[in-house]
Amino acid sequence: MKGEEARQRRKEGQLGSEEQPLADAVPWTSRERHLLDAEKPQEETALIVALQVFVPFVLAGMGMTMAGMFLNYIQHWTVFVEIKELLILIPSLLGLKGNLEMTLACRLSTAANTGKFDDPRQQQTMISSNLALIQVQATVVGLLAAVVALILEAISGQNLELSHIGVLCASSMITAFMAAIFLGILMICVVLGAQKMGINPDNISTPIAAMLGDFVSLCILAGTSSILYRYIDLYYLFPVICFFFFSLIPIWIFIINKSPSITQVLKTGWFPIITAMLISSLGGLIFNKTITEQKISAMAVFTPVINGVGGNLVSIQASRISTYLYSWSSPGVLPHNMRSFYPDPCATFCSSEINSVSARVLLLLVIPGHLMFLFFIYMMEKGEIEINLLFVVFYLVASLTQVLILLYLAEIMVRLVWHRSQDPDSHCIPYLTGMGDLLGTGLLSLCFLLDSFFINMHLKNSNIVEPGPP
């Protein structure tokens, strides 16, 4: 009871003045100070953050590397050759991991870190309502992703076949739905397990979502689209599949309504995930054109890796900042040390604040992590894909640039969303992972084009015959 009173006085003091430090916002009794200190989250050192993040980050990178090699394999399947819109769809469906599962992981991690999982009944309600929420979102966004892929293909001047439209829409919805079920249950197990082991779920939940998310989604999409392609002449089959998944939405909404906070997310959370899907679709268009027109098939191997690593790291940072705000402040009120909406980049990466420390740790993981993943790809795809030193340099610069931009955007976006009294976990992660997909795909395509340009220039110069005596 005393702890609740202390917490309430802390919130009232912050609402009264944004300029005052937390400890000086209201007069505290020695008993209340003791209670407040007891409930303060323990600040992690850079070493603790690195140790907790490193293993899940490496495992996630290996999972994304396997997904890239699998994508390189399935891009030659008949269904992907005949229905090229599937290539545009792939970044959007893989991006749903960031839009839905990573957002779910961040919400659950924040709930666990702020004590909302301590009550078993509240825990059960939050888990069931969150699972139902991502089913609704996966159903709707899965269909929209297919529609956007078709529109982008039509805008680029390609002819659309009615049979291809049915296969694309049905495959997208089935993939989104099944991946959401599997990854949603996995995220719940990870967060609960981390809480029991005394590990910060913010540091490990999103990397583990990334570890299996891309590979699982690709496997479901490849299997589903291949099976449906066999029945491409049965036009009535595809509308029936879409109608079935939409008919389940009222059941999911009934479950969601048991939790007022998740009901609010259902009402307000559509714009971020739909916008993120549109951003990822632009990345998908770049991906499709680079493979089909530029004939750079190696894009398929590296796209899930660079996109996944960027989205993975920025999701960790956004989740950590969100947890920090929930622990130290109230929605709408920024703490004293985060008053500026647009912080100086030096303060974001070079200060002694815990969020700056974690940003530096995450940034330092980029180069060694990608070198490890490149070596793994080189060993597994030896003879199939050539990786030269020039491409490695371009790739590392691109990946570092991507993560640097994303981490800074996360700092700005979380502050703005918090100032508007909205949940950063639900509103920031989709935008950031969508931007990660677009930046990653665009910069990766630029790496291949620059590498090809310099190689051709070198070959051209080497063919010039120097004048001399006969």
Summary, kept brief:
With 470 residues, this protein is mostly helical. 79% of the residues lie in helices and 0% in strands. It has 19 helices and no strands.
Radius of gyration: 24 Å
Mean pLDDT: 80
- Counting DSSP H or I runs of 4 or more residues, the number of helices is 19
% residues in beta strands: under 5%
Supply the key terms:
470 residues, mainly alpha, 19 helices, disordered N terminus
How would you characterize the overall build of this protein?
With 470 residues, this protein is mainly α. It is 79% helix and 0% strand. It has 19 helices and no strands. The protein has helices spanning 2-16, 30-39, 46-74, 78-82, 85-113, 120-155, 162-197, 201-230, 237-247, 249-256, 260-268, 270-292, 299-328, 345-350, 354-364, 366-380, 389-419, 424-427, 429-462. The longest helix is centred in the N-terminal third of the chain and has 36 residues, at 120-155.
SSE topology sketch:
Layout: H1 2-16, H2 30-39, H3 46-74, H4 78-82, H5 85-113, H6 120-155, H7 162-197, H8 201-230, H9 237-247, H10 249-256, H11 260-268, H12 270-292, H13 299-328, H14 345-350, H15 354-364, H16 366-380, H17 389-419, H18 424-427, H19 429-462
Helix pairs in contact: 1-2, 3-8, 3-13, 3-15, 3-16, 5-6, 5-7, 5-8, 5-12, 5-13, 5-19, 6-7, 6-10, 6-11, 6-12, 7-8, 7-9, 8-13, 12-19, 13-15, 13-16, 13-17, 13-19, 16-17, 17-19
